[in-house]
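Feature request disguised as a bug report, sorry. It would help if multi-protein outputs had a clear separator. Right now it looks like this:
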Amino acid sequence: MNFSNEDVLSNLCKQMFCDINSYKNAIDGVMRVYREEGFRRLFAGASTASTRAIFVTIGQISFYEQVKVILLASGYFSDNPLTHFLSSFTAVRKFFIHQLLFVIVLKSWCL
């Protein structure tokens, strides 16, 4: 049998979202995981989440720096708080939109 990446991702998403939706709330989820799987499973995925956070931070900082260099090279901006604010705002907005699109695509695969 030959499965495409989309098929595998879709099936994983369906399973993941079914598991997520089975908890009443966050407290119920923590308590059930602790009861059913033990203390160590509460931290399952922590290294993956930390690694992802590191790469997102690196991406935001590099995007911030790139936007700042472009703004300063344009001649319309000098090295002042406005330039840093615009660079930071652009970097945060870019990653917020990226995350939003990622969630939309992920959920669309899971339907």
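(second protein starts here, but nothing in the output says so)
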Amino acid sequence: MLDSLRDRGVKFRSLAEAIDTDTPTRRAMWQMIGVLAELERSLISEGTCPGGGVTNPVPINQPEPEYSEEARKAKRQGEVLVSLVVDEHGKPIKSK
């Protein structure tokens, strides 16, 4: 849009956003801001797509639980909560 205005001899200056396209350097800065805004929009939409490239978890190791003698006699069951952080390739990077 700004290129078509420039081709017609119009100089653009926004007082609210401090945008000025009078010089080549200022035009280049404005174009870089536009490129970065487009990249940000693309990254956000890519990250919010259904699935987002994240696959279902695959067990790495499933050890058999070890119960103390007292627990076996009491016949108690319970749950263990595990927190696992994975990178973009699904590799575990932090657990607790």
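Even a blank line would do. Unrelated, but nice: The mean pLDDT is 76.
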